Amino acid sequence: MLSNRIAVYPGSFDPVTFGHLDILQRGLSVFDHIIIAVLNNSRKDPLFSVEERVDFLRQATAHLESVTVDSFDGLLVDYVQKKKANIVLRGLRAISDFEYELQISAINKHLNPEIETCFMMTSNHYSFLSSSMVKEAAMYGGSVHELVPEPVEKALNQKFK
Ligand code: PNS
Known about the structure:
binds 4'-phosphopantetheine, alpha/beta
């Protein structure tokens, strides 16, 4: 049994939304420390650079002592092991997330059986929210004010003005 529970919360975070921050906040009631790990080798074509995504997350979590923000390349399980953690934290919004998450957790289990994935259900309030939806809404001039932290809102408005 580990005395100091460190979880790694990985993702693309392109960009961070209040849905991600909700999972993080609730994760902090279970884990002593959470490392937010921003993927740097995505095959996806991100809107924001990894530096920007890390910066948004650092600003949004500056008041949280038990959170650090980092980026990683390569396999998630290798990163988790390097950080001396054994838990991956992921949020689940709806049934539509389930299959994708099942696949990721199964491959991670295959790659390193000592690492567990812990899922937290997103609050109903944010069940519709995703980074892709936020980008699309912002692209067509919709307000994302209640969906993302202020620096992200400003950056999205700047990109799509
Ligand atoms: O926010 P996302 O894009 O759904 O996050 C996906 C992420 C970063 C968790 C996943 O793509 C990942 O862990 N990638 C790192 C490469 C890896 O370990 N691949 C094997 C498991 S998919």
